[in-house]
Write a structure and sequence with these properties.
Blueprint: E1 2-4, E2 9-12, H1 19-26, H2 36-48, H3 63-69, H4 72-77, E3 79-84, H5 87-101, H6 112-119, E4 152-155, H7 159-169, H8 195-204, H9 206-212
Parallel strand pairs: 2-3, 3-4
Antiparallel strand pairs: 1-2
């Protein structure tokens, strides 16, 4: 999550949706924000205390976190935005990320189908934390009653164009995003799926698919 009081925006960073590129671009404006320095000190104090003083909005916090922690007038005055990604594509990204960053979790699950069935198995012991892409993206954008509490939801599939809209709204230049962590050697995500595994993702992430209008054959 990235908060700017000078430019009055709040970026809700959902993992694996291009958010690292967005953060890298917007971070340059932190140094022009007089509020950045006290916020940085609070962040350091929060880290040194084991985050027990609650002075920092976590990197991948949900919008409800800021909604509850910030004064309501301030929250309402911010332009709140996030980016989402096709759930089928997101799970392929997760597969490669975990294989690269935590290969010990992949033992016996080196192929995508085995990995996906294990990851989405409702009987899998919950003590095995995998990554945040097992969660609904829509949960990052709503309050406790399911009401959307952000102002703009862009798409990973049109990241540059939607980021330009964000910048226009907060009166900032819209430079070309540097696609950090972008994979260029995978081809279409569809080739990873069988009919059964595609249906498995459709069932598990139905709320996201319904809210954002994604399809397996579309973007």
């Amino acid at each position: 999550m990235l908060l700017s009081l000078k430019y009055k925006f709040l970026f809700v960073h959902i993992a694996k949706t291009g958010g690292t590129s967005v953060r890298a671009t917007l971070n340059r404006y932190r140094w022009r924000d007089p509020w950045y320095y006290p916020m940085f000190m609070c962040s350091r104090l929060s880290s040194l205390s084991g985050h027990s003083i609650g002075a920092k909005l976590p990197r991948h916090a949900r919008a409800i976190c800021a909604y509850e922690m910030l004064p309501r007038e301030l929250y309402d005055s911010l332009f709140k935005f996030a980016f989402v990604r096709n759930p089928w594509d997101l799970q392929v990204s997760s597969f490669h990320h975990i294989g690269r960053e935590r290969p010990h979790l992949m033992e016996g699950r080196e192929d995508f189908e085995s990995f996906l069935r294990w990851k989405l198995d409702p009987e899998r012991p919950h003590q095995y934390h995998i990554d945040t892409s097992i969660e609904l993206q829509s949960d990052y954008l709503v309050d406790l009653h399911g009401k959307v509490i952000v102002d703009f939801v862009g798409r990973y599939e049109r990241l540059q164009d939607d980021f330009r809209q964000v910048c226009e709204h907060v009166a900032l230049p819209a430079p070309k995003l540097a696609h950090k962590r972008q994979a260029k050697d995978r081809g279409s995500f569809r080739k990873y799926y069988t009919d059964d595994t595609a249906a498995l993702v459709a069932e598990h992430f139905k709320a996201d698919i319904d809210m954002f209008g994604y399809t397996f054959d579309g973007d």
